[in-house]
Amino acid sequence: MLPFAHLASGYLVYASVAHSVEVNNTPLLSAALAGALAPDIDGLFGAQIKDHKNTVFHAPLFWLCMCAIAFTAGKGWFPIFIPPLIVFFLSIFIHLFLDWMSARTSGIRVFYPFSNVREAAGIHGLARGGMSPREAGKRSL
Q1: 3-state DSSP: the chain helix, strand, coil percent, rounded to 5?
Q2: Among 24, 58, 112, 121, which residue's Cβ finds the most Cβ atoms within 10 Å?
Q3: What is the extent of the structural domain holding 100?
Protein backbone atom coordinates (compact mmCIF):
# COMPACT_ATOMS: atom_id res chain seq x y z
CA MET A 1 0.00 0.00 0.00
CA LEU A 2 1.01 3.58 -0.43
CA PRO A 3 2.23 5.63 2.56
CA PHE A 4 -0.85 7.86 2.40
CA ALA A 5 -3.12 4.84 2.93
CA HIS A 6 -1.06 3.75 5.92
CA LEU A 7 -1.15 7.28 7.35
CA ALA A 8 -4.93 7.31 6.91
CA SER A 9 -5.19 4.02 8.80
CA GLY A 10 -3.03 5.46 11.58
CA TYR A 11 -5.30 8.47 11.80
CA LEU A 12 -8.35 6.20 12.02
CA VAL A 13 -6.73 4.32 14.90
CA TYR A 14 -6.10 7.65 16.63
CA ALA A 15 -9.65 8.87 15.99
CA SER A 16 -11.18 5.69 17.36
CA VAL A 17 -9.07 5.72 20.55
CA ALA A 18 -8.59 9.43 21.31
CA HIS A 19 -12.02 10.07 22.81
CA SER A 20 -11.70 7.24 25.32
CA VAL A 21 -8.19 8.01 26.60
CA GLU A 22 -7.53 10.87 28.99
CA VAL A 23 -4.10 11.92 27.75
CA ASN A 24 -2.78 14.71 25.59
CA ASN A 25 -3.85 13.99 22.02
CA THR A 26 -0.65 15.21 20.34
CA PRO A 27 1.54 12.29 21.53
CA LEU A 28 -1.32 9.92 20.76
CA LEU A 29 -1.64 11.18 17.18
CA SER A 30 2.13 11.12 16.74
CA ALA A 31 2.29 7.54 18.00
CA ALA A 32 -0.53 6.45 15.68
CA LEU A 33 1.08 8.00 12.60
CA ALA A 34 4.55 6.71 13.51
CA GLY A 35 3.17 3.23 14.05
CA ALA A 36 1.35 3.32 10.74
CA LEU A 37 4.67 3.95 8.96
CA ALA A 38 7.02 1.94 11.21
CA PRO A 39 7.01 -1.32 9.20
CA ASP A 40 8.15 0.63 6.13
CA ILE A 41 11.26 1.92 7.91
CA ASP A 42 13.30 -0.45 5.75
CA GLY A 43 12.76 2.03 2.92
CA LEU A 44 15.25 4.29 4.69
CA PHE A 45 17.87 1.58 4.25
CA GLY A 46 17.49 1.50 0.48
CA ALA A 47 15.11 -1.43 0.09
CA GLN A 48 13.28 -1.29 -3.21
CA ILE A 49 9.51 -1.58 -3.31
CA LYS A 50 9.67 -5.22 -4.43
CA ASP A 51 12.06 -6.13 -1.59
CA HIS A 52 10.81 -4.01 1.28
CA LYS A 53 8.56 -6.73 2.71
CA ASN A 54 11.49 -9.15 2.93
CA THR A 55 12.90 -7.56 6.07
CA VAL A 56 12.20 -8.18 9.73
CA PHE A 57 10.11 -4.99 9.87
CA HIS A 58 7.26 -6.71 8.00
CA ALA A 59 7.29 -9.71 10.34
CA PRO A 60 4.44 -9.78 12.88
CA LEU A 61 6.51 -11.89 15.29
CA PHE A 62 9.19 -9.17 15.41
CA TRP A 63 6.61 -6.54 16.33
CA LEU A 64 5.00 -8.88 18.85
CA CYS A 65 8.37 -9.21 20.61
CA MET A 66 8.92 -5.43 20.47
CA CYS A 67 5.42 -4.92 21.86
CA ALA A 68 6.08 -7.27 24.78
CA ILE A 69 9.38 -5.56 25.59
CA ALA A 70 7.87 -2.06 25.33
CA PHE A 71 4.88 -2.89 27.52
CA THR A 72 7.02 -4.64 30.11
CA ALA A 73 9.37 -1.65 30.34
CA GLY A 74 6.55 0.88 30.09
CA LYS A 75 4.42 -0.71 32.76
CA GLY A 76 7.28 -0.77 35.25
CA TRP A 77 9.09 2.50 34.58
CA PHE A 78 6.99 4.71 32.29
CA PRO A 79 3.26 4.04 32.84
CA ILE A 80 2.36 7.36 31.24
CA PHE A 81 3.56 5.97 27.89
CA ILE A 82 1.15 3.03 27.86
CA PRO A 83 -1.69 4.74 25.89
CA PRO A 84 0.68 5.96 23.12
CA LEU A 85 2.29 2.50 23.05
CA ILE A 86 -1.09 0.87 22.57
CA VAL A 87 -1.90 3.19 19.68
CA PHE A 88 1.60 2.76 18.18
CA PHE A 89 1.45 -1.03 18.13
CA LEU A 90 -2.18 -1.12 17.06
CA SER A 91 -1.23 1.03 14.05
CA ILE A 92 1.67 -1.31 13.26
CA PHE A 93 -0.52 -4.40 13.27
CA ILE A 94 -3.14 -2.67 11.13
CA HIS A 95 -0.35 -1.73 8.69
CA LEU A 96 0.67 -5.40 8.49
CA PHE A 97 -2.94 -6.48 8.09
CA LEU A 98 -3.45 -4.02 5.25
CA ASP A 99 -0.26 -5.21 3.54
CA TRP A 100 -1.48 -8.77 3.91
CA MET A 101 -4.88 -7.85 2.45
CA SER A 102 -3.69 -5.67 -0.41
CA ALA A 103 -0.68 -7.80 -1.45
CA ARG A 104 0.56 -5.19 -3.90
CA THR A 105 3.83 -7.06 -4.22
CA SER A 106 4.03 -10.53 -2.70
CA GLY A 107 2.42 -10.44 0.72
CA ILE A 108 4.16 -10.63 4.08
CA ARG A 109 6.04 -13.37 5.88
CA VAL A 110 3.65 -14.00 8.73
CA PHE A 111 5.84 -16.51 10.60
CA TYR A 112 9.27 -15.08 9.72
CA PRO A 113 12.02 -16.06 10.85
CA PHE A 114 10.56 -19.56 11.30
CA SER A 115 9.14 -19.67 7.78
CA ASN A 116 9.98 -17.75 4.61
CA VAL A 117 6.55 -18.36 3.07
CA ARG A 118 4.88 -15.13 2.01
CA GLU A 119 1.16 -14.98 2.54
CA ALA A 120 -1.37 -12.63 1.08
CA ALA A 121 -5.15 -12.53 1.15
CA GLY A 122 -6.73 -11.03 -1.90
CA ILE A 123 -9.92 -11.21 -3.88
CA HIS A 124 -9.11 -14.77 -4.92
CA GLY A 125 -8.43 -16.06 -1.43
CA LEU A 126 -5.22 -16.99 0.30
CA ALA A 127 -2.09 -16.94 -1.85
CA ARG A 128 0.96 -18.82 -0.63
CA GLY A 129 4.56 -19.13 -1.67
CA GLY A 130 4.98 -15.62 -3.03
CA MET A 131 2.13 -15.77 -5.55
CA SER A 132 0.10 -12.68 -6.11
CA PRO A 133 -3.64 -13.01 -5.54
CA ARG A 134 -4.10 -12.78 -9.32
CA GLU A 135 -1.75 -15.75 -9.88
CA ALA A 136 -3.49 -17.72 -7.16
CA GLY A 137 -6.83 -17.08 -8.86
CA LYS A 138 -5.52 -18.35 -12.21
CA ARG A 139 -4.32 -21.57 -10.60
CA SER A 140 -7.64 -22.19 -8.91
CA LEU A 141 -9.67 -21.83 -12.12
Answers
A1: 65, 5, 30
A2: 58
A3: 3-140
